[in-house]
Amino acid sequence: MTEKTVAPTVNSAGYDVPPELRQSVAITTLDKIWNMGRRYSVWPMMFGLACCAIEMICTAASRYDLARFGMEVMRPSPRQSDLMIVSGTVTKKMIPQIVRLYNQMPEPKYVMAMGACASGGGPFKEGYNVVSGVDQYIPVDVYVPGCPPTPQALLHGLMKLQEKIDRESITKVRWYQKDEIPAIPVPILGPDIIDPRDSAAIREMASRKAAPAAPAAQPEAAEAPAA
Amino acid sequence: MSEQTPVKEAPANPPTELEKRFPGAVKRDERPGFEGHIVEVAKLHEVAAAIRDEMGYDFLSSVTAVDYYSEAPEGENFIEVVYHLYKSTGGGALVYRVQVPRDNAVVPSLVDLYPGADFQEREAWDLYGVKFEGHPDLRRILLWEGFAGHPMRKDWKEPYFEEDVKPFKNRWPEGQVYRIEDRNPVGKNVSYPQGFDPDGFQETDDPRMYESLERSSQDFIEQIDTEQVVVNLGPQHPSTHGVFRMAVRMHGETIVGLKPVMGYLHRNHEQIGERNTWTMNMPFTDRLDYLSSMSNNFGYALAVEKLIGEKAAPPERAEYIRVIMAELTRISNHLWAIGFLLNDLGAFFTPALYAIEERELILDIFEATAGSRMMCNYFRFGGVARDLPEGILPKIKDLVTDRLPRKVEELDLYLSANELVRSRGEGVGVITPEDAIAFSAAGPVLRASGVPYDVRRADPYSIYDRFKFDVTVRQHGDVYDRYMIRIDEIYQSLSILRQALKDIPEGEIMNGKNPYQVRVPAGESYGRVEGPKGELGFYIVSTGKANPHRYHVRAPSFINLTILEKMCVGQKIADVVVNLGSIDIVLGEVDR
Ligand code: SF4
């Protein structure tokens, strides 16, 4: 295979195509052609949370031009999008909506945590209304560091996502398996955010506070004097 | 910088004007570093009404609470509510405050006098648990109904609580480094009241909001006998400029009630700010209104410098650099605002693309000077962090004398006379000048309603008194005027920039060395600048320690939203996004 190939991902399946046919015939695996189609048409959701969203918009604008990656089609509806770029600080008040949006996206779906806040709480991590990383609730595929990540960094993250897509195989991906993919339970706004998956641990934690022998540096009960 | 109350100028001891007018109800604040008066809680409403009507302080700039808490039983234990007022004709501040016990914090509401106090009082209730008696709709605003406690109180600890002040010990090399989440049994940033059972829990947030929406549209409900629909726009909506939500009640297509719901980006700026050291807060201010970080730096620097005094007066060159950066920020912000207002008007993304292209050029300048495109973190107390890089001044000059005027004219040419922009903007979302002042609107929103109020002129700070510029003003108060005024302001900023570039001297950029820790004497100060979105104020209280005792941001985007419901009622649903776009909000600043 020394001759020029049609596209980097095509004609590399180890089949020897006669030279006269190389301009018109390409042989590849189903996975590759399937992934090639997907990697160049990732539609992100038009969804911005905070400062990072501004850099995301700049990335989509003419100077950095997301269209080069086939990703310029930002959809305001989760039903039509493949990629959720969590671009900003995830707060407790917002996380139920984010989880809901994630559940509403059809498979295949990807999540990118853009910036320090979405990856781990960032500068606001200690805040009482801040979720330290969106990955505490939904699975994340790519983390992009930065505060905010520059458009170049975001593009790099998107290319990493393309690499991840390239490695997937149509026979193994979760959305073609028999079992249904369960939805992520939506958190509830209680006295603090409640993740239904944690309810046993929460009950435990709430009852343990009564005992004086709580583990070291246990934060105090969040009770302010009634006003 | 010259914010002296008229009362403060009175000779030392004889009773001040206010004391004479309200004997017994008002006494001077004698604490060192504090200004203004302490008003008797029971008399607050009466005094406030008299101050507004007799003395002409018609613009309520900021209302906020401060918690004075000490564990010792004989220490001071009260909550103070501080009011900053100005005259809409210009001049310094009038400050008065009330003090109430922490366990029974009840203060009469001033919403009937100053409708602009609405959201600010709700915020004080939410974060401090101050009950405002007579407030028409006292619900939580940033957090949700049902949240345990009032988090800004000094005795309330957040789940990831480590220590009261930074830098935390575990960041020291000799201390043991641990991850704070490992100490929480759930591994998340959460904590629950004792005995809380998550099963069978009922949410209480939304029902209260809908009740309130129904109450405010009651008149219509009785008049018209048709079914009404409630539509929620946001928090994930392409036209809400971030995570903002509006619950709109409609009769047909006509809006009969609207409740903004915010807090989806409430990231505890103020609480984190009170734990940080003074300098550590500078990068956090960048993230308030993330489209105009330089202006935010400016406001915070001014507030702290005012408290430090002469020792932190920036040198000439630094002042010029500050003005240049602040005006560039204003231009970039307005370009963005115009582009995205056009988005809301239906010209999807093309004007925005053109606007962003110009903004990128300004961001390049920021990146060269401060090191970052958006989060500049450039100002320091007493100057700026570093000098301008070589060769940047000619670049700025090119930009402001050639490229930007050309491009703004182009925008102006294609957009301002455009049939659709005019017909969707003219007469839509009208705010009268009286309303604009009463609702504490600021910035372009205020000036588009015919009130020529610009902090740069009304109460000059830094070196703005040296430049010739017009305070832009438009008369109709509609969406179109709020669009036009931004174009006008860009021209004025360009003119200021040209003057500043001509006069900028060589020299120092810091007063003394740039210290790692600053010493801020005890006292309070309120620094305000004319940010691109309006009057941006920082209210700080220092106890002389390494970190602020109170750090409050008077956020123009937040307060400008108070008038949104009034603007929208009676209009069509399609105009809501346009009205919102014309206010130009940034959620980082609304929710903080
Ligand atoms: S990572 Fe930084 S820029 Fe991004 S949302 Fe968080 S604070 Fe803003």
Key features?
heterodimer, A: 227 residues, 3-stranded parallel β-sheet, two-stranded antiparallel ribbon, 7% strand, disordered C terminus, B: 592 residues, alpha+beta, 5-stranded mixed β-sheet, 3-stranded antiparallel β-sheet, 20 helices, disordered N terminus
Kindly describe this structure.
The complex is a heterodimer of chains A (227) and B (592). With 227 residues, chain A is α/β, with parallel strands linked by helices. Chain A contains six helices and five strands, in the order ααβαβαβαββα. A three-stranded parallel sheet of chain A has the order 1-2-3. In chain A, strands 4-5 form a two-stranded antiparallel sheet. Chain A is globular and about 75 Å long. The relative contact order of chain A is 0.12. By secondary structure, chain B is α+β, with helices and mostly antiparallel strands. Chain B is 38% helix and 15% strand. Chain B has helices spanning 17-21, 44-55, 118-128, 205-216, 218-223, 269-275, 281-286, 293-308, 316-345, 350-370, 392-416, 419-425, 433-438, 444-447, 455-458, 479-503, 556-560, 564-568, 574-583, 587-591, and strands at 26-28, 37-39, 59-68, 78-86, 94-101, 106-108, 131-133, 229-233, 245-251, 254-261, 379-380, 383-384, 523-531, 534-542, 550-554. Residues 1-11 of chain B have low confidence and may be disordered. At the A-B interface, helix 2, strand 4, strand 5 and helix 6 of A face helix 6 and helix 10 of B. The structure holds iron/sulfur cluster.
Major sheet characteristics of chain B? 5 strands, mixed
Main interface by residue count: A-B, 71 and 78 residues
Strand share of the residues of chain B?
A: 5-15%
What is the strand tally of chain B? 15
Which residue ranges of chain B are poorly predicted, with pLDDT under 50 across at least 5 consecutive positions?
A: 1-11
Gross morphology of chain A: globular
Oligomer: heterodimer
Q: Tell me the distance between the termini of chain A.
A: 78 Å
**Residue ranges of chain A: pLDDT <50 for 5 or more in a row?**
5-9, 211-227
